[in-house]
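Inverse folding, one chain.
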C-alpha cells in the first residue's frame, strides 16, 4: 500500500471511529447503579434516542477519566465530592446537575453473623476480624463514607491496619461473599442486590449522623459531550416514574 493510500485509510479509520463515538451515549456511572441501569437500558435508549454505553466503576476513577478527556456524555456519581471537583473545574454542562438518589452505608458479613443494633456490639466483632474489606477511599465513595462512619464512632483504629481495599463497591461485596474477608462496608442497595440464599447479611446500618455528608447520587451532563440534548433526555427519563420505581425497588431513596 502506498503512503498516500495508507494515509487515506488511517484518516477514514479515524473518521469512522469518531462517527461511531458520536452515535452512542456514553454514561459513566457508579458501580452500585449497575443492576438498575442495565435493567432500564432498553427504555433509556428509547427515551434518549441513542444507543447507550455504560461505563461502571468507582466514582473517583470515573471522575479522573473525565478530567483526562475521556469521551463521556453523562456522569452519574455515588458521591457529591467527585461531581463537585468536575463542577469546579468547569467540566460540566451548565444547569444540568441534580441530586437524583440517596443511599445508606451498611456493614455486611456472612449469613452466620446476627445483626446488631448498638455500637458497643460492633467493637468485639471488628476486634476479632483478621481482615476488613473496604472500597479504596481514594476512588470509591462507599469506602470514603465507611471511613467517615468508623472514625465518627471511634471504631476505625480497630480495622485501620487490617484493611483489604476494593476497586469498587461490588468488589468489596465479593470479598465478603467469597469469605476472603469476614466483614465489609458497602451501600445498602448493594447488599440488597444479593440473591436470596447467598451467604451474606446486613449486620449494621450506620446512622446518617455518623457521616460528614448525606449519601447522595448527583448526575450531570459532561460539558465536552457532543450529545448533550440526548444526555438531558436521559436525565429526564431517570427522573420519571418508571425509573424511579426501579430505583426504589432496589433500595434507593430520594435525597
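Residues assigned per position:
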Amino acid at each position: 500500500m502506498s503512503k498516500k493510500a495508507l494515509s487515506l485509510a488511517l484518516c477514514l479509520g479515524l473518521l469512522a471511529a469518531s462517527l461511531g463515538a458520536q452515535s452512542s451515549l456514553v454514561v459513566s456511572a457508579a458501580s452500585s447503579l449497575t443492576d438498575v441501569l442495565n435493567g432500564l437500558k432498553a427504555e433509556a435508549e428509547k427515551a434518549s434516542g441513542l444507543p447507550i454505553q455504560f461505563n461502571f466503576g468507582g466514582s473517583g476513577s470515573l471522575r479522573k477519566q473525565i478530567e483526562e478527556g475521556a469521551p463521556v456524555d453523562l456522569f452519574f456519581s455515588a458521591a457529591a465530592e467527585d461531581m463537585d471537583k468536575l463542577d469546579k473545574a468547569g467540566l460540566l454542562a451548565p444547569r444540568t446537575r441534580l441530586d437524583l438518589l440517596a443511599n445508606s452505608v451498611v456493614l455486611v458479613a456472612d449469613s452466620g453473623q446476627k445483626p446488631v443494633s448498638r455500637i458497643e456490639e460492633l467493637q468485639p466483632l471488628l476486634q476479632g476480624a483478621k481482615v476488613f474489606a473496604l472500597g479504596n477511599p481514594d476512588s470509591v465513595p462507599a469506602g470514603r463514607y465507611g471511613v467517615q462512619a468508623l472514625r465518627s464512632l471511634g471504631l476505625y483504629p480497630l480495622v485501620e491496619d487490617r484493611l483489604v481495599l476494593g476497586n469498587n463497591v461490588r468488589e468489596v461485596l465479593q470479598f465478603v461473599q467469597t469469605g476472603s474477608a469476614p466483614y465489609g462496608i458497602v451501600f445498602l442497595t448493594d447488599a440488597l442486590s444479593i440473591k436470596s440464599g447467598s451467604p451474606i447479611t446486613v449486620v449494621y446500618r450506620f446512622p446518617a449522623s455518623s457521616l460528614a455528608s448525606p449519601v447522595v447520587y448527583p448526575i450531570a451532563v459532561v460539558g465536552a459531550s457532543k450529545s448533550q440534548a440526548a444526555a438531558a433526555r436521559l436525565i429526564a427519563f431517570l427522573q420519571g416514574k418508571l425509573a424511579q420505581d426501579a430505583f426504589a425497588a432496589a433500595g434507593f431513596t430520594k435525597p
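Confidence is low (pLDDT under 50) at residues 1-21. The chain is about 45% helix and 20% strand.
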